[in-house]
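Summary of Year 1 activities. Much of the first year was spent building the evaluation harness for sequence design. The harness presents a backbone, in tokenized form, and records the residue chosen at every position. We chose the following record to illustrate the format because it has been used consistently in internal testing since the harness was completed.
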């Protein structure tokens, strides 16, 4: 199948490389010329495990090419829209500029029978409006949300846990004839996953768009729920990690996504719950999602609490104190610093007069672009040199495995603030550290 993938960021680049690895002929289109040059040379422009191998394999087999020219999308049968939908400046709603632009530029190159597949996360109602604009082209729109996680994007794309197709429906709610035809094309694209038995949910546009934001809202709620329990644990001397283990054994609850700590960040969960609230307001059902305001508030409070705890550990003031922050990425196995809790805590402390040194195995370059005033060090040991307190803010494996004795030799004072509840308190205390954490005694 000839495929175009429009937008080659975290989603599009992985999608393009993964589809090409399955034997499709893929052209990836992006407006960023540097990114296109890098991808065309088989180099991933961001850190994503497994992507470099997938890219070099697909580029050298000739199945994957890249271009900045939308005209090169002509001739493809299926066109995936994978551009970003960030939060609008100063507003909760999603900024659809990139979706609008990609769509407008693609339109003149579409021909009868083409299938346009929306994968970007959009406010419900967007697909319906885009589909109307396709009417004169003879192309059909399918809404096919993606659920990949950064750090596991290759695995999630090649082996998704489910596929969702939002298809055009007629007045009686039935899938239209054009919709059925388009579906066959998408089935062909995903034939490997489908024959592996991946569950497929076929539905209408509105449901498909809602599935994505509902899933991310649920995950955000789960994290904020356990972080709310963290606040209770802090007030009572209880241990949130044991609490999560105990409730997680109930299969209806489940232990995954119940890791209390500094909370969620990244380019998806925070902006998706806000855009969802904004859209609910426009639809006149804002009350239905007012709980997401609290989910957001609990999440942001964790960052404040982390700074307060660091202050407490430094006898009431962080002014002039040397603080090491381990982690800048919003989560391990990623170099993405968008809305990173780690970086937000580091920047807050710097603004409040501390001397902050940040380290991260992958995200230093991105972090420096965002906060050039912070100091950066290549390793945990170098960042912790002379530190009055060390903060673990992103749970990279190498920070979980730090030796408290070795680290204890370079710091000024043995104070560890574990923002992700991943260290063993007993081991650190035995090595002479004052150990504090979010939600643990
Ligand atoms: C998220 C969803 O998990 C994906 O399913 C979705 O496709 C994606 O957004 C998207 O919309 O594109 P991602 O942003 O890569 O994926 O990251 P997650 O693994 O969901 O983690 C989000 C944040 O929650 C991270 O900051 C992480 O540290 C935090 N988190 C996660 C916790 O604080 N506690 C947990 O128990 C789990």
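For this record, the design step produced the sequence shown next.
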């Amino acid at each position: 199948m000839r495929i175009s993938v429009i937008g080659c960021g975290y989603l599009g680049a992985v999608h393009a490389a993964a589809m090409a690895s399955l034997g499709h002929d893929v052209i990836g289109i992006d407006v960023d010329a540097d990114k296109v040059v890098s991808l065309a040379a088989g180099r991933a422009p961001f850190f994503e495990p497994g992507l470099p191998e997938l890219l070099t394999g697909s580029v050298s087999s000739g199945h994957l090419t890249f271009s900045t020219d939308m005209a090169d999308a002509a001739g493809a049968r299926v066109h995936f829209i994978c551009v970003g939908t960030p939060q609008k400046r100063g507003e909760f709603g999603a900024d659809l500029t990139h979706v609008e632009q990609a769509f407008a530029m693609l339109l003149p190159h579409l021909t009868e029978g083409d299938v346009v597949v929306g994968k970007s996360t959009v406010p419900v109602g967007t697909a319906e409006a885009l589909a109307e604009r396709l009417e004169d082209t003879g192309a059909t729109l399918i809404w096919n949300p993606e659920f990949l996680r950064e750090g596991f994007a290759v695995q999630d794309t090649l082996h998704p846990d489910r596929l969702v197709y939002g298809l055009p429906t007629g007045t009686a709610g039935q899938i239209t004839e054009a919709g059925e035809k388009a579906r066959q094309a998408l089935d062909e694209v995903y034939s490997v996953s489908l024959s592996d038995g991946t569950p497929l949910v076929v539905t209408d546009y509105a449901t498909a768009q809602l599935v994505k934001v509902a899933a991310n809202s649920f995950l955000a709620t789960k994290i904020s729920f356990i972080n709310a329990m963290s606040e209770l644990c802090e007030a009572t001397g209880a241990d949130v990690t044991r609490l999560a283990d105990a409730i997680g054994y109930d299969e209806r609850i489940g232990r995954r996504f119940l890791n209390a700590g500094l909370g969620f960040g990244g380019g998806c969960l925070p902006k998706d719950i806000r855009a969802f609230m904004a859209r609910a307001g426009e639809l006149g059902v804002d009350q239905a999602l007012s709980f997401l305001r609290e989910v957001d508030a609990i999440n942001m409070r964790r960052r404040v609490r982390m700074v307060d705890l660091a202050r407490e550990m430094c006898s009431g003031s962080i002014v002039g104190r040397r603080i090491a922050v381990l982690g800048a990425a919003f989560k391990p196995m990623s170099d993405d610093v968008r809305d990173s809790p780690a970086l937000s805590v580091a920047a807050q402390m710097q603004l409040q007069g501390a001397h902050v040194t940040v380290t991260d195995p992958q995200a230093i370059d991105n972090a420096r672009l965002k906060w050039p005033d912070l100091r950066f060090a290549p390793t945990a040991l170098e960042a912790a040199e002379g530190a009055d307190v060390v903060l673990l803010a992103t749970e990279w494996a190498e920070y979980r495995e730090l030796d408290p004795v070795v680290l204890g030799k370079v710091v000024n004072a043995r104070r560890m603030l574990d923002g992700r509840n991943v260290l063993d308190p007993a081991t650190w205390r035995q090595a002479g550290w004052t150990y504090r954490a979010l939600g643990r005694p």
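The chain has three domains: 2-198, 213-296, 301-437. Quantitative recovery figures across the full test set are reported in Table 2.
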